[in-house]
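#structure-requests
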Amino acid sequence: EVVKRADYGIDLHTAALHRTNLPQIRIAPGDEGLMKLAEAFAPPVIITSKLRDGSLRQSAKEAGVQVVLYEGGEALRFDESAIEAGVKGTLRVMKMIGMIDDAPRPPAHAVTVHSGSSTWSRAPEGGILHSVRKVGDKVGRKEPVGIITDPLGAVRVPVFAEDDGIIIGRTNLPIVNRGDALF
């Protein structure tokens, strides 16, 4: 009911529970109008990803409404930088579509990374995760991003980046099980 009354939308999200996300915009592939909205938002990362069944983005597409999805910060927490990125990005989109006359400019040094995919580096073993990289860090394939230890630190298992890229999300849980999504 809401989507059909809109011309545009921004679906605002935090990361899932116990995770932190770098501010990012997700858009459906092959839509030039969505890319223009995403670029106006000027997030650190724009990810082109397929629509999920039952999602707001899918319903919007079916209704002919352009909706981008913003994710940033951590669930149940006030992440000031993610909030600021979301507010300023929303204002920039509102200016682009003619709703307001002025909006904050993106930081002069800001560069948006465009990505067509994302993957998780998963825990090779269970134990205590010690992160050595944070969201926003650029990493190379097979570069260490964390270490999993036993409770006494005697056993140390490195965790490596799966691909070249940028860390857009990470777990905040110190205790991990084999196969858990980490970065």
